[in-house]
Design a protein that fits this description.
Helix content: 25-40%
CATH topology: Nucleotidyltransferase, domain 5
CATH superfamily: YqgF/RNase H-like domain
Shape: globular
Number of domains: 1
Largest sheet: 7 strands, mixed
Radius of gyration: 15 Å
Strand content: 15-25%
Number of strands: 7
Strand order of the largest sheet: 1-7-6-3-4-5-2
CATH architecture: 2-Layer Sandwich
Structural class: alpha/beta
CATH class: Alpha Beta
């Protein structure tokens, strides 16, 4: 398996799929390919999706482990619903840029996705995304739910990828 690892600057473009900006259709439009962004964690995985033009990342969901459904099954459903051809996975790295314990989780998740779904996997350096998410949500007064932090981290990871695609 071949993976790409990109290190991109985070941009402050943040939109939520259900809150004031308009909601996205949950059906797959013909010919439209979207990108899925994941912020994998031990308990929760934040999930974001690109708009149909591949310009804006929006928070889609926070998957909580142990709630009955398998994460890979859920990602497979999303891939079918949204015609996902690229999955961007956050790669936790130390401040020196070396892989850490969470990096193994990201690689294992990517391998499981690749084994079940015909998609490109891209890793994005996710250093500081949770801290940035907490800061943004704290300013907005929405820090109460840890799932929001994970979802927003997935948005930041995916937006970083989308901003760098044509650069």
């Amino acid at each position: 398996m071949r993976y790409k690892t990109l290190k991109l600057k985070l941009k402050p473009v943040i939109l939520w799929g259900n809150e004031g900006v308009g909601t996205m259709s949950r059906n797959c439009e013909e010919g439209i390919i979207r990108v899925l962004g994941l912020d994998p964690g031990e308990k929760r995985t934040g999930i974001a999706i690109s708009d149909p033009l591949g310009v804006i990342a929006s928070g889609l969901d926070t998957f909580i482990k142990g709630k009955g459904k398998d994460l890979i099954d859920y990602i497979e459903e999303l891939a079918g619903e949204y015609n996902i051809k690229t999955v961007v996975v956050g790669m936790p790295l130390s401040m020196s840029g070396k892989e850490i314990e969470g990096s193994k989780r990201s690689r294992a998740l990517a391998a499981s996705i690749k084994a079940r779904i015909d998609t490109e996997i891209v890793f994005i350096d996710e250093r500081m995304t949770s801290l940035e998410s907490e800061r943004v949500l704290k300013q907005a007064g929405r820090i109460r739910d840890k799932g929001n932090i994970d979802k927003l981290s997935a948005v930041l990871i995916l937006q970083s990828y989308l901003d760098g695609v044509d650069s």
